[in-house]
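tool_call: predict_structure(chain=1)
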Amino acid sequence: MSSPSPKPRGEFHGALVIRLQDHGILTSTYFNNGDPVPYPETARRQSTDLPGANPFVGKFDCIWLEKNEHHKVTLIIKKEPTDIAYELRWIDKNNNVNFEGRAALENGILFGYYS
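tool_result:
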């Protein structure tokens, strides 16, 4: 599989909070900039992606709800050892980047934004 081409950075789209749960599962609440209603997102580490020292870093099967619809993508979270920020990328089944984001870890929770 070829690596996805980066989507041009767009304008600010929303904010998110990601929490680590048991068994390689992440849960998130996110807000879109045009909608005051929060939405849920859940991600589970892919079975072929072995967990490393950082449980937030990896490749996850992800689903979120928005306006009575659900969306399935792959969420990839990376972090360079020398960088405080995490890089997030939501990729659809056609290998298109739907969103890109950045987040920082504080008290075991990732706080960030996406565009």
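agent: The CA atoms of residues 4 and 95 lie 5 Å apart. Proceeding to next step.
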